[in-house]
Amino acid sequence: MVSGITTTTASLSGTASSDGINTDSGSCLTEVGFVYAQHANPTTADTKINVTAALGTFTNSLTGLRGNRTYYVRTYAVNSNGFVNYGNEVSFITQKYTLTITAATGHTKVYGTADPVFNYTALGFANGDTNSILSGLLTRDAGENVGKYNIKLGTINAGADYIITFTGAEFEITKANQTITWNQTLEFGCADSNNVTLTATTDSGLPVSYTIANAALGTISGSTLNITGSGNSTITATQIGDQNHNAATAVVKPIEISQSGLVIQQWANVLFFDNKSNNYVAWQWYKNGAAISGATRQYYSEIQPLNGTYHVIAKDKNGNSIKSCPIETTGTVFTKKIKIYPNPVKPNAEFTLECDFSESQLNGSEVVIYDIAGKLVQTISNVKPKNQIIAPSQTALYIVVLKLADGQLKTINLLVK
């Protein structure tokens, strides 16, 4: 019989007995033992173990076997005449080798990226085998959200000669960074709509939130800015992240909302800033987008008629800035004239304004009277070639401006005293 089978060893036990003929006591025996091979019906020409030369029970152990192999064993006996007798055949299979596979620790990836190859170590190779006999890959528990997942044996296979014991590890998915992109110039006002769509996006696809530093300029609902004032401030775009994303770095953009009606053209070569509130204390004038050196007064003038696009940035007593809407002039000099008489005129007295234009040319025009600080005093519509107008009640120098429907201006001074 065979017992104690392992990967490389087995214990054998057999019995040699006489057939009882002629009172045979086995005295003629010369060898008793075992023969074995990896094929059926082994003989003494295969592997032979000579254990004894007597009748009775005998034992021995096989060593140096190979794992996961089928072996065939028989007892044998040889007498002094060289005759060989074999016992019944017994077969057995050796155990498989044990290969220990241990998953490496520290495997990670960032959310949204591909899994790495999960590394491992393998111990317990036999018969000169190496990692080259292994096939397949380790796998992990399903899931793509941020968190920890168990690494599993997956499809690793070492072939028929091995059984595998596996020690797993944890695989971690970490949060992804995200970036806000915001390619938008926040300059509004003048002819723009009061409702503006803010266009910041994230590479994660998550929605962007906005806050405005100066709520007097407007309110934000979702991605829509509702403009309610003028001036300058900042808008901050944020994305706080979620289960799978870190918070994005905030993007802060300046916003400037221009105000219309701040600048008027008094003569062909003079622009005035309307400071009737007396709240503004500093100015910088611009022509065609460039700051004009030394142009830091409430008004701006050139020797020749103005020709270009002009605006001004004014600062109030608190240091807050406001930008005027641009005013465009073409350098046109009127050949026609206007005149006032009497001039000077008494306060609240009537004076006549004559306009050297036809009624069709004056259609849609208006006459506007300003004080020298640029404050609007009076507006006269339905202008005719000859107009009777009541003078202001305060003695001062006033500016009378004829504004034609096509935007051209004609200016004359009025002295009230």
From TrEMBL:
Low complexity bias (residue ranges): 1-18
Fibronectin type-III domain segment(s): 1-97
Keyword annotations of the record: Signal
Keyword Signal belongs to the record: yes
Region (Disordered): 1-20
Top-level taxon: Bacteria
Signal as UniProt keyword: yes
Matching InterPro entries: FN3_dom, MBG_2, Secre_tail
NCBIfam families according to UniProt: Por_Secre_tail
Protein name: PKD domain-containing protein
Taxonomic source organism: Flavobacterium anhuiense
